[in-house]
Amino acid sequence: MSWEQMQDTFYNCLDFCEVYDRLPYFYITGGDPILHPDFWKLLGLMKQHNIPFTILGNPFHLNDEVCRRLKECGCQKYQLSLDGMRETHDWFRKPGSFDITLEKIACIKKAGIRSVIMTTVSGTNIEEIPDIIDTVVERGADVFAFARYCPTSEEKDTGIEPLRYRKLLETCDQKFKEYEAAGCETYFNKKDHLWTLYEYETGAFKIPDVVEEGIRQNAPLEHSAGRAGVIYGGCNCGNCHLTILPTGDIFACRRVKNSKVGNVFEDRIADVWVCQMERYRDYTRFEKCARCELLAWCRGCPAVASGKNGNFYAADPQCWKALSDAD
């Protein structure tokens, strides 16, 4: 985007938040957004409006001065990827990037920014996740989370069977609890919504006795009815996030390849939100989840489902819950 386009996009976003009484929060990603020639101008504009943000970027251009400037502009978190131990991660990314990523955790924290390590799980690296957890805890990362790889049009399978994925959650849950009991300061963000299913089965999550009197923060009241009653959790697509690409294209979710709903240079985001985004709020269309008691809290990851067969409402490929036709 040109600087003029970035400013127009920014104010289009603020207009949306004003219309629907939302609090703006930006996630800025790339590539490496720091390399954009107008990156610091954008951050200055965000600072002028007191808008917090997270950077999802690379470690290669971080140093003490860059992190200090990021913090000064309002950066709350800086997210780095770690997609395996050294050999695997460097194969995914580039040689040396594993060590550089770990090195920059301290640089980020020194500036007063929360360091986030995100792992994308696939059949290639699933067995390495416990070792990654140990590594990021040792390095003092503030937050750790993982999400599943979304298949592309060329690859239709993540290489993870449902029960194998459940076993990973079980292993990680035990590890998280051990670290928390030992006073570990790393926050383990259970980002994947299948954690809800796992915790429901293990008793850590219980469906409230009364579920119609509340509303999940930011969920649009006029779009939350239906068999789900009220949407309390799970996927935020259609509830409180949008993605804007450098072309100006607006996507319902950055992980859903075919989810374009408009273009920020041509459309008012506030209008897109109540028109084109409606197709992502029909909770009764979820082929498996609509028959599950956890519909209002889980719904797995529609992006992973969509990546496999192009259907946003298809069953999550890693969901292990068995449902009968009568459910």
UniProtKB/TrEMBL annotation:
Domain of life the protein comes from: Bacteria
List the residue ranges forming a coiled coil, or say none: none
InterPro entries reported for this sequence:
4Fe4S-binding_SPASM_dom (IPR023885), Aldolase_TIM (IPR013785), PqqE-like (IPR017200), Radical_SAM_PqqE_MftC-like (IPR050377), rSAM (IPR007197), rSAM_ACGX (IPR027583), rSAM_sf (IPR058240)
CDD domains linked: Radical_SAM
State the signal peptide span.
Answer: none
User: Which segments constitute the Radical SAM core domain?
Assistant: 1-178
CC cofactor: [4Fe-4S] cluster
Q: Which GO terms describe its molecular function?
A: 4 iron, 4 sulfur cluster binding; catalytic activity; metal ion binding
Q: Which SUPFAM superfamilies match?
A: Radical SAM enzymes
Record's keyword terms, sorted:
4Fe-4S, Iron, Iron-sulfur, Metal-binding, S-adenosyl-L-methionine
Read off the Pfam families from this record.
Radical_SAM, SPASM
- Cited Gene3D superfamilies: Aldolase class I (3.20.20.70)
Q: What is this protein called?
A: Putative Fe-S oxidoreductase
What species was this sequence derived from? Answer: uncultured bacterium scaffold00090
